[in-house]
Structures are given as C-alpha cells and as structure tokens.
C-alpha cells in the first residue's frame, strides 16, 4: 500500500467543508416540499431540527454527523429558520444518541443511502484508476472519487480512507502507464534508450542532456545541429502511435520529472519505470525539437527577408544624391523638349543645349543602373541569401513528415519535387514542376524566359512553407504547435452531442439565424440612434461631421483633496525590506505552500530558501547573484529547489492565492469588484546569452527583446502573465489570460489598447461571456459595417465601411461554435488558434466568417463608445491601472539592467512569473497598510471622504527596500503588523 500522503493539510480541510458561497449554500440546503413532509412526520421540535440537520449533512458533503459532532452554526441557523424552530433546540436533540442513530438509519433507508464498506472500496479502486491515467494530482483524484460516491448514493468514509483509496488507484495507473509505454519496445530500442544516459564521446554531456539542449540562435549552423538531434530521437525507433496511447498530462509529467533527474537518479528506478521515463523524455523531446526546428526556420526566413529589405533601403538611401541629380537633369531636359515643341525647333538640339549628347547617353545608362524594380520590391535581394537557406534546406525537408490541407497541396507537391532533386543531385527543375503556389509577387523572379529559376523557386517554396505552417494549411506529424487544425478542436461527434443537447459551454444562442437576427437588430437600432445624435450634434463630448470624428479627451486631473490624501497615506506606510514584505504576505496567505515537490507533492521544508528562489526570479537577480546576496543560501541549494519546486503550475496557484486575498480584502473594493480587467505588454530587452533568442519589432527599436503580457484586475491585482514574441500582435494573447488563470476573479469586461484588438478577437469574446472594450487609436479610421439592406445613414458616412456578409457567417456557424467550445474546454489555447486564423492572407472560410462576426461586434462597440462617456472613462481608468502596474514592474525588475539574459524559454517564463508574483505581493501588502493608514487618519480626527479612497493606489514602492542583502531574519512578531510611520504635524 502506498505510504506517501497525496493531500496537503489545507486540501484535507477543504474536501468536506460546507459550501462557501451563499448561492451554493442555498442550493444545497433548501428543503423541498417532500423533504418538509418527511421532517414534519417527527414529533417534537428538537427531533425535527435534528432530523433536518442530519439530512443536510447526508446530502452535502455526503457524510453522517458523528454522535459527538456539533453541526456548523451557519447550517444550524439556516435549517432552524426554514423550520421556524429555535437553534437552542439542538442542545436537547444532541443529548439523545439513540435517537440520532435511529434518524440516521431512517434517512439512509428513505433516500437509499448506503454506508461505505469493503465492496465499495474494491469497486472504486479500478474506477478511479481510469481517472488516474489522466492526472496524478491527489486532490483531483479524491474530488473525483467523492463525486463518484455521491452519485452512487454512498456515504463518504473518512478522508484517510479516501486518500488511501486514491493512492492505490494512482499506483495501479502508474503501473499501467509504465507497461503501456514499454511493452512494444524492441530490444534494440530498449538498449538505445538506456544508452541515452551514457556520455557522448569527447563530451561531458550525456546523450540525453545533449538532445534536450535548445538552439542558441536562428542560424544555419544551429539548424543543422538541431536536425542532428531530431535524427537521433527518430533513430530510437519508438512506435509511431505510442504518444496517443497515454494521456498527454501524464506523459508530460513523467517527462518533466525525468528531465530534472541525473543519470544516477534514474538508475535507481526499477527497470520498467526507468525505461518508461526515458520513453516519455524521448516523445516529449521529439515534439520539442520539431517545434524548435520549425520556429528556427520561421525566424531564419524572417531574418533573410529583413536583411534583404534593409539592403534595399540602404541602397536607395546611398543612391539618393545621385538619383536627385538625375531627376534634376531630366527635369531640365524635359523643360528644353517642351520649349522645343512649343517653338517648333529641333528636339535633339534642345537636348544638346542642356548637355553634350555623349553625356546624355551616359546619364541614361546611369539612370537605368540607379532605377529600382517597377514595384519597388526588395524581393530580388532575397536571392543574395540563398546560401543561408540552402545550407540546411535539404536535410530540413527530408526530416519533416509534412501533411497539407487542400489549400496547400500544390505547395506540398513542390516541396516533394525539391526533395527529389536533393536526393538525386539534379539541379534543373522539371518542366512540369508545380507552380500554382507561386504568388504574383514571386512570379517575376521564378518564371523567367529560360524557364523556372531553381534558386527563386526554392526560396519561394521555403517562404510559403513558413506561411502555410503558421496558418495551419500545412502541419507536421509529431509536432505540438503545428498539428492538423482538426486535432486542436473538440472531436466532431462529442461536439454534435453537446450541440444537440443544448449543453455548449458558451454564452450565446446556438441557433445561428436567431443569434444573428438578435445582433443585427441591435446593430440597426444603434446605427439609427447614433445617426440621429450625430446629425443633431448631440453626441456626448464628441462630434461627427464631414471633416471626420472628434472626441473630447477625458479630464485626468486628480482633485486636490485626493492628492493630499494620497500623500498623507503614503507618508504613513512603513519602510520595509522586500524580504520582510514577502514573509508577512506569506503569513497572511500561505502562498508558498503551493510550491510543491514535483515527485512527492509535498511543500518545501525550507520556506526561506523557497522565497529566496522566487525573489531571484522576481528581481531578475538570478540564482548565482542571489546566492551571494542571501546569507545561508548557495547556488546548489537554490538550483535544486528551483528544479523540483518551481513550475508554471505552482507559480499559477501561488499567484491565485494572492489575487484571491486581494479580491476578498474589503479595502480593495474601493477600486473595483473584480469583474473588469485590462491587459498590456511590457517589453524587456534580451541581452547576454538571451540576445539570440529575442525578437525584433521596429515599434520598440532595433534591439531584440521579449514581451511580458500581463492582465490586471480593477483591484490592481496582476492575475496572469505570459512571455510572448514582440513581433506577435498583443491581441493574440488577450483570451489566454482571461481563460487560463487560477484565481476566483470573474471578469465580465476587459480593456486593451489598440494593439490588443482584432476582428477575430471581437468575434470570440462575446461567445465566451466577455465584453470587449479596447481603446482604439485613430478611431475615425475604423469603419462601421451595416446589415444587408440598411438605409443610407447620412451622418455616419465618414465612418461607414460596407455591408456585412451574413451568409458567410451562417455557412460556418457550427464551425465557429466548435472553435469557441474547444477554446473554452481547453483542448487548444485561444492564442494558438487566433494566431493561425490571423497569420496568413489566404485565410480559410472559418477565418473569414469570424472576421465578419467580429465586424458586427466591433461596430456595436464603436457605436456604444460614441454614446457613452462612462464607457470611455472605464476603459481609460482600467488601462491606467495596467500602465501604473508596469511602472512598478519596471522598478522591481531592475537587476541585470532590466534585461532578460536567460536563453531558455522556460527560465524566461519563470522570470515573468516571479515578477508577477512579487508585484502581486506588493499590491496586497500595500492594500492592507493603506487601509491601516486610513484608519489611523480617522482615529486622529481626520475627516477622510469615502469618495476619495478610489484615488489611492497600492502600486507605490518608494517605501520598499528592493536592494542590498536579502536576509530573512525579522524582528516583527508573527501575527503582528509593522508599525505605521507617525503622522506629520502638518
């Protein structure tokens, strides 16, 4: 029997707790007419009260009330109120042990409730083992078991029994998992897997460590080295369908655990477990290398195009003086020819009057050399970088198991032709080589008078491959990020069943015609209203005329009284070291308990060492410098703790603990109720070893960087953070933060700036219960779209952009619902699908339908924006909170000059997560002490106006010492607050 505990102390307490929310409490414990009839059959008010209370406990949480156990006071009061009985009657009932036992047996008989016994135990183990094949999280397994027993009408046993049963099911599932991963392996494959733990010849690294290395830079050399890694993974000879036989959650967990272990650690496992761990590492490693190869190709092609464009611009700039001279010269010649024609004189003599004929002939030749292509395109310069792509292209195409949708079949055929040429060594393209994939822009270079140009044909095919992979028109077998579009979605049969049963997890009418009819009717009404207001000049703080749209800026000034309160409160906040702040916040919330051991699930025995590691991420100090700055810690200790305790999921749970504490704090209600939020990206430069992994976006300059994209609630709590490519539009990641956070926030309205919106996002947000409200720059250039058959809205003409294609939306309505359902259920991330749908000009029918649906929602939003000053103010306030939080993040993330210097993407994510956790802790600490400061002001006779409290902000950091030695010794007694600074006499 497994000995280790699978639940924490906090999880045990919560498992059988009564409902917390009032709504759930009422739902579980409100009696029906049948219940009341049964209750009132008992003589005596005490008996009726006791019988009813026992009924409540049997129903939820599904346990019997022990003879010596007192019911919860809240439940007792709720039941007594329903029965119109005094709660004091329980004292009478509680003394009658025999009566309580008889009532329990009566209730079990009346409601067919069974007592848990050995037969139930034996039946539950195999059932739960099936669940454990999908997840090994103890609390999830126990909760599933509780739900299963409740559904069967079985009383829940003690938590220790539930835990023991779950542990046994998990052991069975693990054995099945190890057997499934290893049973079909050949002896050669088994030996090859064992060899992964041996050192490479001439290297200090094992084969496994070398295979798991990430590429350093987007270069041909790195591409070839990574292709060698892919070949090594593929040569293991694992069965092709092995990854599909087990749940991906368990596979990734085994791989993540194995990745943290040394060969010596793995050698201690029993053979089947060690082999299964190596199989999981191989499957995950193959998928990772494939994705990294495709990303490298994408970046190399982008780099080649950027270099060609830069050369094109440089050449034009360098020739600027000569071009200007030629233009001036031909201007003089043209004027001379016009004069000659007007006067009837010899045109050739007119030219020679400007300059000798020999010089004129030479100037024509010089002009031809200076002239750029007619379309001023830089594409011809891409050919100068052919060698860069050619160096790895043959091996790259040979290694990729490519597949294509009908839209990309011709491109796949072209790639097959190139593969054949690479295999045979032939240089000339066959006359019948596919050309339908060649865009008009490439045709002038590929299709020549001498036939197909091999160099530009291959460059075009490789560039189109990048685009097709992005859009999903092509995919790679075994990849995670570039799979078949269909594999990301909920399977068609389960989706059809949900649709038929009316159980889609969406916030819309599933009938497309009815839904569009409602939205278009609303759009028509709004168009008429705004047209009337605009014609009468009655738009609030806005005007729409033939000259365009003008909206008055909002007044952002802070009242003098509010500014005085801000300064008074800030002067009282205690000076605190960042270490003391974290200790105090952890004492309030216990957020550190969520950082559990990857293998055992136990919290760390050294919380100070854990907080030190988190601080190294949040301050961007790094483990080496943090070890030198924190007495008692070493790099080895911090590195070990980070490897085993710090992961994306533990960071998410710890952050949720802080966000939930902020949500529950009464003072935070002055800033909002937690139903609105904003998101914004913050760029950090990529320097040192990370410079080659960063991306360049001209918006931020010529230096490579990464973007931390953060969601902030209206209570200033940063509840999500993602590391994204600076070249990808922010809007791609808006939904990820709203959908995949772990906190109790229930966001209803979300704000972004201009970079945070697209028509696709406008379409999907309402389907998932969110109101989308971006602040759109140059709103006057953003067009409104009308329903078919709309009249001419004269006053809106400057904003009108055309008529909606409603038929296209209806034709793809079920596909839209299936996509939204898939995003909601988490079978695919919103960012991945939005990136695919919006990445390629030749968009598929679903993308076009989403665009049309988004135009409806965007038009409705703009019309609302024109009418509502309150909406504009809400958006501005929300975005200001996010921008202010970015200022705090910049101040906290100050080490290493605020640069990202970690080459691995996982480490970069930890930096972002650590920074977000640290800012959330500062926000919560400031909130608590701002409340104390306001209370102190009132206690000293200051009249603090409630209306001014929303102007206070928990984002200040001047009183927090972020530098120096990071010591965890504190003079503050546990449970005591830091003393406020004394009020100034002024």
Q: What separation lies between the terminal Cα atoms?
A: 70 Å
Number of strands: 15
**Spatial strand arrangement across the major sheet:** 10-9-8-11-12
Averaging pLDDT over every residue, what do you get?
A: 89
Low-confidence stretches: none
Structural class: alpha/beta
Largest sheet descriptor:
5 strands, mixed
Helix content: 55-70%
Taken as a percent bin, the fraction of beta residues is: 5-15%
Radius of gyration (CA) equals: 34 Å
Shape: globular
Number of H- or I-type helical stretches: 41
Domain DUF4158: 6-169
Organism: Hymenobacter endophyticus
Pfam family, one: DDE_Tnp_Tn3
Keywords: DNA recombination, DNA-binding, Transposition
Secondary structure: elements and pairs:
Layout: H1 9-15, H2 22-29, H3 33-39, H4 45-59, H5 73-83, H6 89-94, H7 97-110, H8 118-132, H9 138-152, H10 159-182, H11 187-195, H12 207-211, H13 220-234, H14 248-259, H15 263-267, H16 271-318, H17 320-343, H18 347-354, H19 357-370, H20 386-390, H21 393-399, E1 402-404, H22 409-424, H23 440-446, E2 447-448, E3 451-452, H24 454-471, E4 474-476, H25 485-488, H26 492-501, H27 512-535, E5 542-545, E6 548-551, H28 560-572, E7 576-577, H29 578-589, H30 607-618, H31 623-629, H32 635-645, H33 648-664, E8 676-685, E9 705-713, E10 718-725, H34 734-739, E11 749-752, H35 759-767, E12 771-774, E13 784-786, E14 800-803, H36 806-811, H37 813-825, H38 830-837, H39 845-867, H40 869-892, H41 905-939, E15 960-961
Parallel strand pairs: 7-15, 8-11, 11-12, 13-14
Antiparallel strand pairs: 1-4, 2-3, 5-6, 8-9, 9-10
């Amino acid at each position: 029997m497994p000995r280790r505990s699978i639940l924490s102390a906090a999880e045990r307490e919560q498992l059988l707790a009564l409902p917390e929310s009032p709504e759930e409490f009422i739902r579980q414990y409100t009696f029906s007419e049948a219940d009341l009839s049964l209750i009132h059959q008992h003589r005596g008010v005490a008996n009726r009260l006791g019988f009813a209370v026992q009924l409540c406990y049997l129903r939820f949480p599904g346990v019997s009330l022990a003879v010596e156990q007192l019911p919860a006071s809240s439940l007792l009061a709720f039941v007594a109120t329903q029965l119109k009985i005094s709660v004091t009657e329980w004292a009478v009932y509680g003394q009658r042990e025999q009566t309580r036992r008889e009532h329990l047996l009566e209730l079990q008989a009346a409601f067919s409730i069974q007592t848990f016994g050995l037969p139930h135990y034996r039946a539950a183990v195999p059932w739960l083992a099936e669940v454990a094949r999908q997840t090994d999280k103890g609390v999830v397994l126990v909760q599933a078991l509780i739900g299963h027993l409740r559904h069967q009408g079985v009383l829940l046993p003690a938590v220790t029994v539930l835990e023991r049963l779950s542990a046994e099911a998990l052991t069975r599932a693990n054995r099945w998992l190890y057997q499934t991963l290893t049973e079909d392996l050949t002896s050669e494959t088994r030996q090859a897997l064992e060899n992964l733990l041996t050192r490479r010849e001439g290297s200090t690294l094992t084969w496994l460590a070398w295979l798991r290395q990430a590429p350093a830079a987007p270069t041909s050399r790195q591409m070839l080295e990574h292709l060698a890694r892919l070949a090594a993974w593929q040569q293991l000879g694992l069965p092709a369908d092995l990854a599909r036989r087990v749940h991906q959650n368990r596979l990734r967990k085994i791989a993540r655990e194995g990745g943290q272990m040394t060969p010596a650690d793995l050698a201690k496992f029993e053979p089947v477990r060690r082999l299964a761990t190596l199989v999981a590492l191989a499957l995950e490693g193959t998928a990772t290398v494939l994705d990294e190869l495709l990303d490298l190709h994408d970046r190399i092609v982008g780099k080649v195009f950027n270099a060609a464009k830069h050369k094109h611009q440089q050449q034009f700039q360098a020739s600027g003086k000569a071009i200007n001279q030629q233009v001036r010269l031909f201007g003089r010649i043209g004027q001379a020819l016009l004069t000659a024609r007007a006067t009837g004189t010899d045109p050739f003599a007119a030219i020679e009057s400007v300059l000798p004929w020999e010089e004129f002939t030479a100037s024509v030749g010089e002009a031809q050399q200076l002239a750029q292509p007619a379309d001023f395109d830089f594409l011809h310069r891409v050919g100068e970088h052919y060698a860069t792509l050619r160096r790895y292209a043959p091996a790259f195409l040979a290694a990729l198991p490519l597949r294509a949708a009908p839209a990309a079949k011709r491109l796949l055929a072209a790639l097959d032709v190139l593969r054949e040429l690479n295999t045979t060594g032939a240089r000339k393209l066959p006359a019948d080589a596919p050309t339908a994939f060649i865009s008009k822009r490439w045709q002038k270079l590929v299709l020549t008078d001498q036939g197909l140009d091999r160099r530009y044909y291959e460059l075009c095919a490789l560039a189109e491959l990048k685009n097709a992979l992005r859009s999903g028109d092509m995919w790679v077998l075994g990849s995670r990020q570039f799979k078949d579009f269909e594999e990301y979605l909920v399977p068609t049969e389960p989706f059809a069943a949900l649709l038929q049963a009316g159980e889609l997890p969406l916030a819309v009418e599933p009938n497309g015609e009815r839904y569009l009819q409602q939205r278009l009717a609303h759009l028509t009404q709004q168009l008429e209203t705004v047209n009337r207001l605009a014609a009468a000049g009655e738009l609030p703080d806005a005007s729409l005329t033939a000259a365009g749209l003008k909206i008055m800026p909002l007044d952002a000034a802070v009242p003098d009284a509010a500014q005085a309160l801000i300064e008074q409160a800030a002067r009282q906040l205690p000076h605190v070291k960042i270490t003391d702040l974290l200790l105090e916040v952890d004492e309030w919330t216990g957020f550190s308990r969520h950082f559990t051991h990857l293998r055992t699930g136990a919290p760390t025995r050294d919380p100070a060492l854990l907080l030190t590691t988190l601080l190294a991420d949040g301050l961007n100090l790094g483990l080496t410098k943090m070890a030198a700055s924190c007495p008692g810690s070493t790099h080895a200790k911090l590195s070990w703790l980070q490897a085993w305790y710090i992961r994306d999921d533990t960071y998410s749970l710890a952050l949720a603990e802080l966000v939930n504490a902020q949500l529950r704090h009464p003072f935070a209600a002055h800033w909002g109720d937690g139903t609105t939020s904003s998101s914004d990206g913050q760029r950090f430069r990529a320097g040192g070893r990370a410079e080659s992994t960063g991306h360049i976006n001209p918006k931020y300059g010529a230096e490579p960087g990464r973007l931390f994209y953060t969601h902030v609630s209206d209570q200033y709590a940063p509840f999500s953070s993602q590391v994204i490519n600076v070249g990808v539009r922010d809007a791609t990641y808006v939904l990820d933060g709203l959908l995949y956070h772990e906190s109790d926030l229930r966001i209803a309205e979300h704000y972004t700036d201009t970079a945070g919106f697209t028509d696709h996002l406008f379409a999907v947000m309402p389907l998932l219960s969110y109101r989308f409200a971006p602040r759109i720059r140059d709103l006057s250039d953003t067009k409104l779209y009308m329903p078919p058959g709309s009249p001419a809205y004269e006053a809106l003409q400057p904003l009108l952009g055309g008529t909606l294609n409603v038929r296209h939306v209806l034709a793809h309505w079920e596909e839209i619902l299936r996509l939204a359902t898939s995003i909601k259920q988490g079978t695919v991330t919103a960012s991945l699908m939005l990136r695919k749908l919006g990445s390629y000009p030749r968009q598929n029918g679903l993308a076009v339908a989403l665009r049309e649906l988004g135009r409806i929602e965007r038009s409705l939003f703009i019309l609302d924006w024109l009418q509502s000053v309150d909406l504009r103010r809400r958006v501005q306030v929300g975005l200001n909170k996010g921008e202010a939080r970015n200022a705090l993040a910049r101040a906290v993330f100050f080490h290493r000059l605020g640069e990202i210097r970690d080459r691995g993407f996982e480490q970069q994510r930890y930096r972002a997560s650590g920074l977000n956790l640290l800012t959330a802790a500062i926000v919560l600490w400031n909130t608590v002490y701002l409340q104390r400061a306001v209370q102190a002001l009132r206690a000293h006779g200051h009249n603090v106006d409630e209306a001014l409290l929303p102007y206070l902000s928990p984002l200040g950091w001047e009183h927090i010492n972020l530098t120096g030695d990071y010591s965890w010794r504190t003079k503050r007694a546990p449970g005591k607050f830091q003393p406020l600074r004394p009020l100034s006499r002024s």
